[in-house]
Design a protein that fits this description.
Blueprint: E1 6-7, E2 12-16, H1 25-32, H2 34-37, H3 46-53, H4 55-63, E3 69-74, E4 77-90, E5 93-106, H5 115-129, E6 134-140, H6 144-152, E7 156-162, E8 174-181
Parallel strand pairs: 5-6
Antiparallel strand pairs: 1-2, 2-3, 3-4, 4-5, 6-8, 7-8
Helix pairs in contact: 1-3, 3-4
Amino acid sequence: MKNETRQVSPSLSLVPVTEANAVTILPLMQACYPPVYAHLWEDGGTWYLNETYREEAVLRDLAETDAPYWIVQWEGHPAGILRWHLHQPCLDYPAEAGLKLHRIYLHPSTHGKGIGRELLTLTDREAQSLGKSLVWLEAMDTQQAAQGFYEKMGYQVTGTLRLSFERMHEHYRGMIRMTKVYKM
């Protein structure tokens, strides 16, 4: 599963992140992240992008088992990233090893095209195929559009947390944990 391209729809595919293409993640995220999140950071997000998406960091991520990582391709072009943790307990449901939607970022030019909906539907199917009773994620508490989207997709706010990144503006460090529970 980790090293196979997944065709989600005629226009949408997921290309596995590998050692060979790990170097492409930073420039992709430099295009996707700042238009939406630069205001959170004193340096516009440069430190965070370099810390999280430079080749060495991506290779560390790839070493994690049960954490598939993809380049989202829309109409044959890189449009973002998607990463899951397949067996990750949620603080709000500690007895359950749910599927964590760890990272989902899409280039702003692709917003409104149904890509996020397709990726969350795929995430639901994956969780259910693994016998999971929940999917969960963390989102910035100031990103009202993202929160509204997740709520439309069946997620509910179940917890909060604060980030400790010193380079992030203090008033933007709040996060929410959102969970979607399936009836088994």
